[in-house]
Hints:
Helix content is 36%, strand content 19%. α2 crosses α3. The chain has a 6-stranded mixed beta sheet with strand order 2-5-4-3-1-6, sandwiched between helices. A hairpin with a 3-residue loop joins β3 and β4. It contains 7 helices and 6 strands; from the N terminus they run βαβααβββαβααα. It folds into 2 domains: 166 residues, no CATH class; 37 residues. By secondary structure, the protein is of the alpha+beta class.
Amino acid sequence: MSLFGVRLDGTRSGLIKSFLEDNYVCAGDPVAGDLEFSGREDIRSRLAASGAYQGRELEEALSSLDTFVNMMQDGDYVLIADEEWVYLGDLGDYFYDARQESVEGGTAHRRGVTWLKSLPRTAVNSAVQALLASDQEVTRYSGVLPAARMDLWLADSSDVDVETAHSPARVDEATIAEALAVLKAALHSPDAERRERAAAAILHYAK
């Protein structure tokens, strides 16, 4: 299990509402096309062939895309933030939405996200603050993560007033029921880590 921060700036700073309501996050420029089966060197070649990047810009774009496509895994965690709030989500698989190729800011490279918790930006711990302040568009957290209850680890103290946290997006009852059914099924997974994440998510919902 890993934790990643995705920086939102420029044209992407206005996408956070879409991320939260439509349950996804994006990174990188769509000039490289669908990268589902692409390794790091293939991504480099595609970026170079596009003519959009050279030198340091090429290396930065490569780092972000390779991290987003290849280092992130289903079941890892992601953090995004606006000026006031930080949002924690459980990552899904990478996919390429070709319909978004021409959208300003490049939103075609995507991963599904199940958003789990939000906290005031002033309440998160120093490790999270540093991750969110990274110069890279996509950054992997290099420290030690807790074995469970990632949502509690985010804060400087577990005594954060629950009334200060808010749900990132409204979800209808049918979707909630469907999501809970998936989590209940995951409780019987042969993967111990997946069982643990499912149990934590169900307990968090039940609070």
